[in-house]
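Example (one chain per record):
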Amino acid sequence: YLHGSGMALVEQHFREAHRVLRNRGHFVILNFSYRGDPVSDRRDVDHLAHDWGFEVVAGGIRPFTLWDGLAFHLRRRDATA
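Predicted structure:
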């Protein structure tokens, strides 16, 4: 329920993930929100990824057969690139 806690907390999580991950480290988010709007979720995660130094590897996919939540796979951009 990260998104439901407000964007300030969401940004804090992105900032902290960027801080602790090495270059090219992976950041996975399962169900960014429960607002039922996959287009908005993808747009928000794309924007946050760009702002906090991540590339989107998989944006808003449904990789599980028994769960319909969206999964986001991000990777920390290489600081030397």
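Caption: The two ends are 33 Å apart (CA to CA).
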